[in-house]
Amino acid sequence: MSSRKQPKGKIRPPKKPNSADAQFNDNWDRLAQAIREIHKKNASILSFEELYRNAYNMVLHKNGDKLYNGVREVITQHLEEVAVSQVVPAFPLSGASSSQTNPNGAGGANFLKVLKTVWEDHTTCMLMIRDILMYMDRVYAKTANVPLVYDLGLDLFRDTIVRSQNYPIQNHLLEVLLQQIKLERENEIIDRTNVKASIDMLLELTDASTKDTVYATDFENKFLETSSEYYRVEGQMLVGEYDAPEYMKKVDKRLNEEEQRVRHYLSQTTEPKIRNIVEEELISKHLKTVIEMENSGLIPMLRNEKMDDLGRMYKLFGRVVKGHDEMKSAISDYIRELGKAINETVTSNTTAEGGNAASGDKQTGATVAVRWVQEVLDLKDKFDKVQNLALSNDKAFQTSFNEAFEYFINKNSKSPEFISLFIDDNLKKGLKGKTEEEVDSVLDKTITLFRFIGEKDVFERYYKQHLAKRLLLGRSVSDDAERGMIGKLKVECGYQFTTKLEGMFNDMRISSDTMTDFKEYLDKSVLEKPKLDLSVTVLTSTFWPMNLSASPRCNLPPELTKACGTFQNFYLGRHSGRRLTWQSNMGTADIRGSFKARKHELNVSTYQMVILLMFNDKQDGESLSYEQIKGESDIPEADLKRNLQSLACAKYKILVKEPKGKEINPGDQFNFNNDFTAPLQRIKIQTVASKVESEGERKETREKVEEARKHQTEAAIVRIMKDRKTMEHNLLIAEVVKQLQSRFMPNPALIKKRIEALIEREYLERATGDRRVYNYLA
Amino acid sequence: MSTTTSTKFLKSLSTDFTKLLFNAEDYNVIIKVGDSNFKAHSCILRARSPYFHSALSRDWAMKEGNNIIFEKPNISPKIFEMILSYLYSGTISLEQEHPTTILDLLTASDELILLELFTHVKEYFF
User: Fold this and answer.
1) Gap from B81 CA to chain A (nearest CA, Å)
2) Is the ipTM of this complex over 0.90?
3) Is CATH 3.40.50.300 the right assignment for the domain spanning A326-348+364-493?
């Protein structure tokens, strides 16, 4: 303690007439000595109060600059000594080969450890020096615009140690750091504390010219360069050695490691940079290679439903610009390819079937359609699952998948018919053990396919046909299910699309009321009652798919003709001005047949009834020829063949044909099969089962569709022109396309023809000045 | 000043801290100024002044037994008492003081980098 009292005595000299310089020198000597003691970790013998007052007095007496420079000199001197005595001896053996000499980088680690101590000593000392020079910092440094003493210490450390001009400390430091990181990348355990200390040191030091950290100016670029090279080599090695899932796991691991590394001992600012490098070298550069890896790339993953791997690829590839695009296009191509295969199985099936189209193998026809839709639905399910489980329901992927589905679905020109048949299959009675909920969910899925159809008008046509059959043959599972489906279609296409379908339901309801009234009418009337139960469904011709101009001919038996007449009188009596046309091709009949074994109740089509009744007049064994039947019944040839086929060539052979065979040919002879037996009393003769259209029918449907399109196109043109009055050709075309594309994609040539037709019929005219402009003629 | 923060309790805080200085309860610093010994609390001094923050830090504090001993030879006890009182209570009264006292206080507050006090005294003085 007594030593601390000494300063008290020395406080007096200022009052002596000594020169100011001498006094300064005296004070400075003691201060410099004190700083040296601090460097020697001998500070406990020093008095803060005295040293502080000493520096205070120097600054007070305008010797701040001398003090400041003196401090700089003492610290520099000390650091030079440290460099020589501590840092240089710790250099790892022979720079470049050090990793060979010290396989674990022990020399490097030791060097970092020494540097860590040196740095810690320096900062500790600087804090103490800052304490005693607080007055200099506050008063001198501020006015002289020089760094505070602590920062001065940092600059001196930077220039004397880290970037020493005299010793290759910088080289060694950078090399050791990069070497340590390399060792860690190769799964060696390194002492992260030492590395972190050096990194933190570099982060605390500032580069004088860039004002950035020494970490950024000296270390970071080198680190990124070596990393780039490292991962370039590693990327090439990995794609050569591993399959896609393994590769991605390795990349994942690397990305994770680098992130951890940055978090543990590098600067956070390096994180995006090193991430970019790994992403560039390990992902971007090998995108295609990994996607296309045989037996393990993207397609095999999809094929084997490797959701984890797909998810990993999605996440990983999403990191780079082109990653998702490449994945998307590869998956879309794959969907197209699978879709093409589905389409091909169908075409090969239908062409094979085409040969025996007349054989009446209707089941196969519908099965092809149902199978096609089911396969497409399965494919859709598969990719929905991928979307859901692996692709985070990415909208961009969804869009691209949808395009692929749309593409191949529309490649199959029969898809509108198939989808309608599929719905038909599901809405028919006797649903193969499916619950209503199951059916509903299948139909919901079907709607998603419906969305992909470009020619919605074609679908509508088929849907009407199939619905008509379901309704008229009473084969609909339920009104609720039918209306549910129409509701779904309405949501997709608007009410215009479904009004006619709803009209069909109305007809069914009204007809049932009409029949009740008809029965009452018959009960009350004095007329002779018909010898059969007649059930009439009155259809509004515009709602139902029927061809009035080619009304089906058929010579009905007299009993039936009479009954029809009675109904006609009844009906027209109530609704004057209406015209009834009998659609005998759409009816059914229940007749009783007496066979040798027993009587059976047969549920047949009207045509079949007509055919069978002809045999009533014949003796046992007396046959009718095809020509006879045709002449007598006047049933159109295609229908006649089909119905004869059902009676003579199908499951229940009510008629026997000579010669035997699946085909009906002119000259065939038919006999009533008296020996017919069946376990059931009531038998349904299948005819009108829905099936895929034959080529002829398809052509007919196609023509009808084209005709309808003409009308719709004209209607659209008139609608638009009525509103705009005058319009330029291209704009009109564009507007028409816009209005019609929800139903079909009209081609400009068609629109142009319709415009010309409308000009001819004087709905429109060409403008006098500009022939590309049309005017609406009211 | 924020409207939600009331400052009306600062006065009693100041009074209580002054009592703490007078009673020297739980003191742990003895400051030797001339012939006077002031008893004080290192935490309060360090919190109030960067000078004392360094002076009484682990690096620099001189200990005798459990107490830190600090000597301030170039300041008079009277001035130092004023400074201590200012540090504890956040108040100072200059009205009754002789100009030389005030001048000494100005010099001392400069040395100890008590900026608020220095500014206040300077404004009062000039």
Assistant:
1) 18
2) yes
3) no
Residue B25: alpha-carbon gap to chain centroid: 16
Partners of residue B74 in chain A, C-beta under 8 Å: 11, 53
Interface check A11 vs B, CB under 8 A:
yes
pTM score of the predicted model: 0.73
Candidates A536, A416, A431; CA nearest to A475 is A431
Are the folds of A20-92+103-174 and A326-348+364-493 the same?
yes
Ramachandran class of A700: left when φ > 0, alpha when ψ lies in -120 to 50, beta otherwise: alpha
DSSP assignment letter at B41: -
Which fold would CATH assign to domain A695-776?
A: Arc Repressor Mutant, subunit A (1.10.10)
A-B C-beta contacts closer than 8 Å: 46
Q: Where are the domains of chain A?
A: 20-92+103-174, 234-320, 326-348+364-493, 509-574, 588-684, 695-776
Within 50-109 of A, beta carbons closer than 8 Å to B belong to: 52-53, 56
Class of domain A588-684 (CATH, top level): alpha beta
**What one-character DSSP code corresponds to residue A136?**
I
Quick: pLDDT tens for B13-44.
999 999 999 998 899 999 999 889 999 999 99
- Paired residues of B36 in beta bridges: B33
Q: What span, in angstroms and rounded, lies between the C-alpha atoms of A170 and A201?
A: 13
Reply yes or no on whether the pLDDT at A747 is more than 90.
no
Do the chains contact at A48 and B111, CB–CB below 8 Å? no
Q: Is the CB of residue B40 less than 8 Å from the CB of residue B21?
A: yes
- Residues A20-92+103-174, CATH architecture: Up-down Bundle (1.20)
Encode pLDDT of A281-294 as tens digits: 999 999 999 999 98
Point out the residues of chain B with pLDDT beneath 50: 1
CB contact B125 to A (< 8 Å): no
